[in-house]
Every structure is written in C-alpha cells, then in structure tokens.
Design goal:
The complex is a heterodimer of chains A (188) and B (321). Chain A has helices at 3-7, 24-35, 53-67, 94-110, 156-166; strands at residues 38-47, 72-77, 83-88, 117-125, 131-137, 142-146. Chain A has 188 residues and is an alpha+beta fold. In chain A, strands 2-3-1-4-5-6 form a six-stranded antiparallel sheet. Classes of the chains: A alpha+beta (188), B alpha+beta (321). Chains A and B meet through helix 1, helix 3 and strand 4 of A and helix 1, helix 4, helix 6, helix 9 and helix 12 of B.
Amino acid sequence: MSLWKSLLGRTEPKQANLDALFSLPTAGITLQASLGMRPTGVGSVCFRAAEGAAFQATRGDLVELMRADGTEVTETTDSYGFTWLTDRHDPSDLTGLVTELHGVNSTLEAQGFGPGLLCSLVHFEDAAGRRVALVYLYKQGTFYPFAPKGPEQRDNLFEIQIRDAIGTDLPIEKDVSRWMAVWGAPEL
Amino acid sequence: MASHRFLKDSGLTARMTLVMFLLGGLFVGLVAILMGIGASYGGGGLAIIIGFAGLGVAWFQWYNSDTLALKAMGAREVTPQQAPELHAMIDRLCAMADMPKPRVAVSDTDLPNAFATGRSPERSAVCVTRGLMRRLTAEELEGVLAHELSHVAHRDVLVMTMASSAGIVAGMLTSGARYGMIFGGGGRRDNNGPPLWIVVLVVSLVVYAISFFLTRLLSRYRELCADRSAAFLTQKPSALASALTKISGDIAAIPNRDLRSAQSMNAFFIAPAISGMSMKTLTSTHPSLEQRLQQLAQVATELGRPLDGGAGPSTGVGPLT
C-alpha cells in the first residue's frame, strides 16, 4: 500500500491474485514423482463471508456452480468465522479441481468479494496415509505446504522437504512466519 | 476485472487533509514568529533551541513508541504458545490485508481497551487488555483487532506525532518562558517593546491552544478511517459496531428498552436538547458512538449492495443488530 494512501487513511482492501493457482497441476506431478504424494481430489476455498443480502445471493450461485458437474460440495464455518467450501473431485483430475476452485474465486471476485478470500487448499496423501495440503495465499499470490501431525502440531521437516521439491514449479512464500497454521481446515 | 466494494469517503479525506494542512501551517507560522523574535530581540536563539529540544523529545517518543507505550500500559508480549487464539486471529487478518504481522501484547487490566503502537508497520505492536478479551465474543474481538491493525497500516503514530509537533514545541516554550519570567526578571526594554518572555509566552499559548483542538479533530478523523478500513477488512461491520457499543457502555445511543416502560421523564428526551458542538465533542480524541455506528451502517450498505448482474437484496441488511 502506498505511503500516501495510508497517510490519508484510505487503505483499500487488497485484491486477491488468482493467476498463480493454475501452476498447481505441474507441482502435483512433481510431488508424485519425487515424494510419492498423490492428490486426494479434495480441495477447499477459505473466505470471509460478508454480511448483507448481496453475499447471500452470491453464495447460492457458488454452490450451484460447484455442484453443476456432479461433484460433492460441503460448506463449513470454522471457529474464526471463516467459511470453507470443500470440493471432492476425481483424484486423477487435478486440473479439473483447480479449475473449479478458480471458478469459485472468480465468482466471488466478480461480485466484489475478492478482498474476502483468505486461502485455498489442495490435499495430497502418500501411501502411508500422511497428509499434506498446499495452501495458496490469495493476497500474496504464493504457496506453502501445511502438514499437520497430531493435534495442533505440524511436521516442519516434511514441510521444508516439500518446499524444496516444488520450489521451481510454484511461487513459494519465502517468509516462513506467514506459513499460517490452518487447523480448522476440513478433511485434513 | 477486479471489482470491489470499497467506497472512497472523499469528504472524510478532504476534511482530514485540511486539518493536517492547517497543523503544518501552524508549525511553519510558529517557526517564522520565533525567527522574527530572534531577529528583533537578539535573544530568540534560546527559544529556537528550546523548540528543537521539544522536537527531539517527540522524535524519541515516536522512535521508541512500541516499547514506551507497552511499558506505560504494563503490557507484556505474548508468544503464539501463550495466546494461540489471539495470534491465529491476527495471522488471518494480516494474511487477508497482506501486511507484516505486528508483535502481540496483553495487558492484565480489566478495563476493556486495545491500542496499536510502533513507528512503522514493520516495527509495531498491538495490545489488548484481559478485560477486553473477557467481555467480547471472538467475532467482536476480531473487529477490534482489525481496527488496531488499520491504525498500524495508516501509520497513525507517525501522523499524530508529526501533527502534534507544533503543540509540543509550543508547550516547551510555554514552560521555557515561565522559566524566563522568574529568572529573566525585569526583561530588557531596549526597544520599548514588551519583555521577550511575554511575547514568547503569548505566542506559544495561542499556538498550543489551536494545536490542541486541531490534533483532537485529526484524531477523531483517524479513528473513523480505522473503523472503515476494519469493517471492509473483516467484512463484518456489525461485529465492530457491537464491540464498540459494548466497550463504550453507552447504552443511551440506541435504547434496548421500550421507552414507554420507563418511569422517569428523561425517557421522553430522545434527542438531546442542545445538539452539535459542545466542549466535550471538541476535546475528545474519539468520535461519538453515534457517528461511528452511522459510518459502519454505511459500510454495511455498501457490502450488501448488489453489483451489476447480481441478484438484488431480498431482505433488509440490518447492520445494527
């Protein structure tokens, strides 16, 4: 944000950056080849539901849009007041899942709710059942891995391993203090 | 095609810019008068030195504002392990606003309050009291935190320090002139004018008084700006509104009780007899609750407005529930 705008007290909400999301399928292939992690077909979008009638109307459109191709969609609200739309897709079609997530984003953005987008998750799992999610931060336009290990504990070593594996495919969040823990994420 | 619902409040920006401009003019005027005094009396050099000392103090306070304010409030910094919910809330808000995360502190006071301090967004701290966390729901607390983060993003500590520099210099000069009154005694009447210390005292008192009201006015505008930004960031103006109502404890703003059931005559005076300017509204650092709620209601309308192609609102927005 520019200094001038902040001095005038005009902090406009930061717009979401959606472009980098489409580089995810490439990273999925790398993850499978190097660490044996396969996509589980689950992806979710986390956003802040705005109050008012306009958002209620948009929310209806969203769920309709995601259900149009016969996939399963669930909506949950976490303890921090953020809404999660979770999509269960065909695990072999990562591109389709990403396209669908992007559809949610662009619908929200077209209605002026782009500033309310927090992050998007795509889940991966290895043969041993170890789960990890690639988290996309909309405002920064960067990814980071989130590997929960037991209650309120994350597997930092594994996360760094994943970062090193996909570092060339995706823009990775360099500041690790922004690797926010998303404990409330559904199905992780 | 990135559309958003943020509406610029040009009136507020214009009024705020005018006040900042006036404060800047006041400072320039004060310096010019001091230099004039220095030229005609030959003894004004001391006044300028005193003025610069005042600026030095202001700069020091601004530079160390994060540690100074936390110490003054008896607050201590908390780690993510000590206050996981508070940290997670701020993490999410900072990720949404794309700003660096400030340090988080908690004060063991029961008074419901929160403040943000620090010389820049990179070096800032947000502090909440235990009383605030106890009284507010998670949603309301988030609204208050977003308000404080907006103060950080708007660099309010820097703006208010700069804005009050004329007042600080004038304040230092007032005490310096009183010092001169005691020790400078008779004063030199070489050029038949009043003694130096009287001139400096009068000028600095006038500047101090004007600066006092202008900085308070500016502070009220900055609060309104922070409210707006917080409501747009959390997209929940009603949560901030209910937090403000709870904190101020000002139930009189919108009565919860049926006024017909009230026994005393006071209940019939829904609008105060004398509205508008009063000493209290002129000197307070924060805008009145009604003003703040009014503005949050505007934000709620803006968020509920259908954009092109969207379905129209079918139900009332109800921002003040």
